[in-house]
Amino acid sequence: MNEISDFLTWAGTDTIIKIIGLLGIIVTSWFAYKRAKSMEKQISATQEQLLLSKKSQITEQFNKAIEQLAHEKKEVRIGGLYTLNRLKMQKNYCGSWKTFMVLITQILTMHTIIWGQLTIR
Known about the structure:
Elements: H1 2-69, H2 74-89, H3 97-115
């Protein structure tokens, strides 16, 4: 009888250890899932911040190029045209070729009226 009670005690302990191990695996998995979700949110926020930063940088470059187009020196105006063209060719630029050409045409028309005949050689 003593052997049977020893076996039952050992078998119960073994079952309790298995249950505790299973609970440990479940809790660890739950924390890993929560951490993965948190990291996913952080990555999404970082990507959004990066996109905003790129858009801000493009806007800043665009504004500077427009200022260059209004400059008196021909070389600076040509630099503004190159900057606008480079911005247009960027992957994340929101404008289109048609918008770019309309903008350039309007600026050149405006400068022709203001400074007389505009010649770029």
